[in-house]
Design brief:
CATH class of the domain at 32-100 and 123-170: Alpha Beta
Number of strands: 8
Number of helices: 3
Structural class: alpha+beta
Order of helices and strands: EEEHEEHEEHE
Shape: elongated
CATH architecture of the domain at 32-100 and 123-170: Alpha-Beta Complex
Amino acid sequence: MALRPGRTVRRIKRPWTRVSQRKPKKSYVVGVPYPRIHVFEMGNKTKQFEVTLELKVENSVQIRENALEAARIVANKYIEKVLGKEGFFMKVLKYPHQILREHSLATGAGADRFSMGMRKAFGRPKGRAVIIHSGETLMILKVDKANLDNAKEALRRASTKLPTPCKIIVS
C-alpha cells in the first residue's frame, strides 16, 4: 500500500505509543517498524569549526521519518560535494520516537464482505515521526567562516523537505 500524504500526520496528537523492553506484553503497539534514519552525525567529528548554524523550526509539528531522512540526505550531499567529507560536521538532533498508526479500510467491489469497518480501529504501526515544537533546533551544521554561504544553502535545501517553515541561525 502506498504512503499516505504527509498532511495526515502533521498535527501533534499523543496516541498510545508505549513499547516496553522489559515487559513486551504490556506494550500497546505491537511490531514497531525500524527507523529509516540511521545516521545522525556526518562529516568530521573531531575538528573544531569556527561557525555553527542551526536549523530551527517555526511551528510545532510532527515530522515523518522519511521527510527527516530526505532533509538529511539533501543537505549532506550538497555540503559533501562542495566541501568534501572533512570540511564540515552535521548532526540531526531529533530521533523519531513517535509511532504512526494507520487503520486501512478496504475499498472496491465486495469490500463490505471482508472489511471490519471501525471495529478494532486502533490501527497498525506504519512508520515513525519526530514531534518538534516551535523554536526547537532540528539540525546543526559546523563549518569554517569561509564556507558560511555553502552551509546556509545546504540547510536551506534541507528545509524544503520539511513540512514547516524553518529559520537558519548563525552563531
